[in-house]
């Protein structure tokens, strides 16, 4: 009877993280390990599979055909592993969680995470509300939400905590060019309806740099904002999370646009001590969000 090979889940996680972050050096830093330890793990995985998984590509590494196949399997194995652990650990979780999210996260990677949570905890009912940050904070203060992620700092609101600072950028078509080419015409802006931290930061930076501007398109939805920017109506201010591939970050040095400050992301709770089911969902959401932020 042939001896079966049992793949090491820890090694698979390092393998997947390396390519998700674009570098095994970044994976080593995230995992708190040395690059030599990560390289040893990669060699161990190749020995187990019996074929090279990566190959040199310029200054970096690329997946071989076998590596591409293993990466797909590894993601599925890790997802199943994590779901199994969550299910066993939280078998007794039940109740109702009301979660608020900005569109940046709700339109991208978090629905899959929430689906996995629902499968692992079938006794838990999750209600998600997607809205602007100001309204999410207001709903949390009123008790209409248990917990919410929101753009902006956590000052002045109880039971709130800072999560991370994210870089924000001017975003437009790659051929947007230099603002000096506008002559006396104001800079066309695409923005969310107020209140919006991104809109406020962009306008404040333009005013401080004495650059005239005009709003050409406002929208309550992120998809509308991206569509208007892709259509060339103007430029906008966002993070690069979920930025369409047709758009580009506009370099202030090359375009003459002012440098933008980072924007904080904060977590707001209704109560000082969250119920176990709220705490568990919050942990999963924060872990996923921070992974996504660090991979940008």
TrEMBL record:
Keywords associated with the record: DNA-binding, Transcription, Transcription regulation
Domain of life: Bacteria
GO molecular function: DNA binding; DNA-binding transcription factor activity
Pfam family, one: LysR_substrate
PROSITE patterns: HTH_LYSR
Family: Belongs to the LysR transcriptional regulatory family.
Protein name (record): HTH-type transcriptional regulator HdfR
Organism: Paraburkholderia humisilvae
């Amino acid at each position: 009877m042939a001896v079966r090979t049992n793949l090491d889940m820890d090694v698979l996680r390092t393998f997947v993280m390396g390519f998700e972050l674009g570098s095994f050096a970044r994976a080593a830093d995230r995992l708190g390990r040395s690059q030599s330890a990560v390289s040893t793990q990669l060699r161990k995985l190749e020995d187990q599979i019996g074929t090279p998984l990566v190959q040199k590509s310029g200054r970096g590494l690329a997946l071989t055909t076998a590596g591409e196949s293993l990466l797909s399997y590894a993601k599925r194995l890790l997802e199943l592993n994590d779901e199994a652990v969550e299910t066993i650990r939280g078998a007794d979780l039940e109740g109702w969680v009301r979660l608020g999210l900005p569109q940046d996260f709700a339109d991208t990677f978090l629905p899959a995470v929430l689906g996995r949570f629902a499968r692992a905890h079938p006794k838990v009912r999750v209600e998600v509300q997607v809205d602007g940050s100001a309204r999410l904070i207001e709903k949390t203060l009123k008790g209409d939400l248990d917990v919410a992620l929101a753009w902006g700092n956590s000052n002045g609101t109880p039971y709130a905590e800072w999560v991370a600072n994210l870089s924000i950028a001017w975003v437009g078509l790659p051929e947007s060019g230099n603002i000096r080419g506008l002559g006396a015409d104001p800079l066309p802006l695409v923005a969310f309806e107020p209140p919006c931290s991104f809109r406020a930061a962009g306008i404040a930076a333009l005013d401080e740099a004495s650059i005239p501007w005009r709003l050409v398109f406002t929208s309550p939805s992120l998809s509308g904002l991206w569509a208007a920017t892709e259509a060339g109506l103007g430029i906008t201010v966002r993070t690069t999370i979920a930025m369409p591939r047709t758009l580009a970050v506009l370099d202030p040095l090359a375009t003459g646009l002012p440098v933008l400050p980072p924007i904080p992301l904060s977590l707001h709770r209704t109560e000082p001590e969250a119920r176990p089911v709220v705490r568990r969902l919050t942990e999963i959401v924060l872990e996923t969000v921070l992974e996504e932020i660090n991979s940008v």
